[in-house]
Design brief:
2 domains; 0% strand; mainly alpha
Length: 74
């Protein structure tokens, strides 16, 4: 937890723990900065199911992602 807490200073620890647990349960916890097209599809599936995103507003990976940033990250 200490590795990610500084990136979420306004989020209390319990809420952060719950969020991490949800990501792990959904198998969407990232271990690298690289984002694959299938990950974006899965995220959009979740958002559509949760009625946060309209199905007609889904985006294409190439229109919103720059994989070269993740490729260069250490």
């Amino acid at each position: 937890m200490s590795a990610i807490e500084p990136f979420f200073p306004a989020v209390n620890r319990q809420a952060l723990l719950a969020g991490v647990a949800r990501y792990r349960k959904l198998n969407i916890w990232k271990s690298t900065p690289r984002i694959e097209p299938s990950s974006l599809e899965k995220l959009q599936d979740i958002l559509v199911q949760g009625r946060v995103l309209e199905r007609s507003k889904r985006v294409k990976f190439a229109d919103v992602m720059r994989p070269d940033f993740g490729d260069k990250a250490k």
